[in-house]
């Protein structure tokens, strides 16, 4: 692992119980400090499985995932302080207010209540939600829930933020706020791993991409490198279709 590499996915393979095909098949890639790394692939490609291995929620059957040189299988307690995970499904309590949800999630990291309260107010302000701080999550729109879900993964100021489809089901305004916020966070030093099916967002945000399909890594490259090496393609979506094919995955 070089001094700038913070994550090394080394020949990782994962079979789910009862399945004969691997969800992730000997996948290797590395992520450098400061990257905005887009992990792309069609439905069922293995993105969430890979992210779950990085987050230590799943163990690989073979291979390893090193984060800051620590093995994700054996150093979960240390690693969880460096990483923030924002899952694809909204993981909030509907009957609690935004503030109560965030106090709950922040307390899981052992932050002092004083520090936690000031961080919550800061992030709610940055993401345009301070005026609904004490409103119940059940009254929130999809875009507001997505932004609270994002804040919940950021309360302990992780060095590596892992986002699984953070822009799903939200309007253009919410998307714009989240995109600008993530760009700022990345410029200020947070390394980000990002999965999405929205190629326009990926092109705007990511400096490095890993494309997987049917559990196998097809390529890692920057968006510009991909566009340069596929001159017949007009945009990233065309390159993605060329590399993964037009066949439906369902
Ligand atoms: N808990 C599970 N048990 C069994 N098989 C699973 C499980 N989770 C995922 N799979 C299978 O593993 C493969 C990879 O799934 P995964 O969710 O990682 O893909 P993905 O790229 O995140 O897809 P999507 O874009 O649809 O979210 C798929 O074939 C999926 O059906």
TrEMBL record:
Q: One Pfam family of this protein, by short name?
A: ABC_tran
> Key word Magnesium present in the record?
no
- PROSITE patterns given for it? ABC_TRANSPORTER_1, ABC_TRANSPORTER_2
- What is the source species? Plebeiibacterium sediminum
Recorded hits in PANTHER family, A to Z, give: ABC TRANSPORTER ATP-BINDING PROTEIN, ABC TRANSPORTER ATP-BINDING PROTEIN NATA
InterPro entries assigned to the protein according to its UniProt record, in alphabetical order: AAA+_ATPase, ABC_transporter-like_ATP-bd, ABC_transporter-like_CS, ABC_transporter_ATP-binding, P-loop_NTPase
- Keyword terms: ATP-binding, Nodulation, Nucleotide-binding, Transport
Give the GO molecular function terms: ATP binding; ATP hydrolysis activity
Ranges of residues in domain ABC transporter: 7-239
Would you identify the family this protein belongs to, as annotated? Belongs to the ABC transporter superfamily.
Any transmembrane segments, and where?
none
Name the chain's protein: ABC transporter ATP-binding protein
Is NAD given among the entry's keywords?
no
């Amino acid at each position: 692992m070089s001094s700038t590499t913070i994550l090394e996915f080394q020949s990782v393979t994962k079979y789910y119980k009862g399945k004969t095909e691997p969800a992730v098949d000997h996948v290797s890639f590395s992520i450098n400090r400061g990257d905005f790394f887009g992990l792309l692939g069609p439905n069922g490609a293995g993105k969430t499985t890979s992210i779950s291995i990085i987050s230590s929620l799943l163990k690989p059957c073979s291979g390893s995932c090193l984060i800051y040189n620590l093995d994700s299988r054996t150093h979960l307690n240390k690693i969880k302080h460096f990483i923030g995970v924002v899952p694809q499904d909204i993981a909030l309590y509907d009957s609690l207010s935004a503030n109560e949800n965030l106090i709950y999630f922040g307390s899981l990291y052992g932050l002092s209540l004083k520090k936690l309260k000031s961080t919550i107010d800061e992030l709610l302000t940055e993401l345009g939600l301070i005026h609904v701080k004490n409103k119940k999550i059940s009254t929130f729109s999809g875009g507001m829930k997505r932004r609270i879900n994002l804040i919940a993964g950021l309360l302990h100021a992780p060095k590596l933020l892992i986002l699984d489809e953070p822009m799903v089901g939200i309007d253009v305004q919410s998307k714009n706020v989240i995109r600008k916020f993530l760009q700022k966070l990345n410029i200020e030093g947070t390394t980000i791993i990002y999965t999405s099916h929205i190629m326009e967002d990926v092109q705007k945000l990511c400096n490095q991409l890993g494309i997987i399909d049917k559990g196998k890594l097809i390529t890692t490259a920057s968006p510009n490198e991909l566009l340069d090496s596929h001159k017949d393609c007009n945009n990233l979506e065309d390159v993605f279709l060329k590399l993964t094919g037009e066949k439906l995955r369902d």
